[in-house]
UniProtKB/TrEMBL annotation:
It is found in: Cytoplasm. Heterodimer of HisH and HisF. One of its GO terms (molecular function) is lyase activity. Pathway: Amino-acid biosynthesis; L-histidine biosynthesis; L-histidine from 5-phospho-alpha-D-ribose 1-diphosphate: step 5/9. Pfam families: GATase. This is Imidazole glycerol phosphate synthase subunit HisH. The active site is at residues 80, 187, 189. Keywords: Amino-acid biosynthesis, Cytoplasm, Glutamine amidotransferase, Histidine biosynthesis, Hydrolase, Kinase, Lyase, Transferase. It comes from Simiduia curdlanivorans.
Amino acid sequence: MIALIDYGIGNLQAFLNLYQRLHIPVTMATTAADIEQATKLILPGVGHFDHAMQLFNASEMKDTVVRRVTEDGVPILGICVGMQMLANSSEEGSEPGLGWIPGRVKAFKEVLAGKNLPLPHMGWNDVTATPEAALFKQFEPADTRFYFLHSYYFEPEATENCMGRCDYGLLFSCAVNKDNVYGVQFHPEKSHHFGELLLKNFAEL
């Protein structure tokens, strides 16, 4: 059973609809008991890093999520700000991240100065995935396109934790992985059949 972590932020209904259409068992998790029953977890996120971390930290599910991921090895997929929460910290705020994939979330603003590229990075863009990346199984290299909406990007400390890159004024990590922890900066729930295949791959890990 995939549990969508409902801590008050993120477009959970879109994920629910997608998995139900694929006939993959899914539920909204609002309590620690829901997390205990899950075999996989999805951590969505939108908006400001600190706001997302504060809501998650205040939820009754936080401690159970941490234990199930770090001790039980339950796979978790962070999406958009949910991916950024996997890092140690973010330039967008002062709250510490979960630190499950060592790295820092950085702002595009200075990097894009003088490059005539708008912020946020919004719309469809190509992703170059590492060949062995489990989330990108069965993807054709020329057809890996996803929908983005963000002004900050995840820079992992170790290059081996990057499993997908995107070019927007710089080549940045848009998909990361360490052990049972996965994250994507783009929105698979808004990425048509590309996102559907990625979420199906996560369900089949």
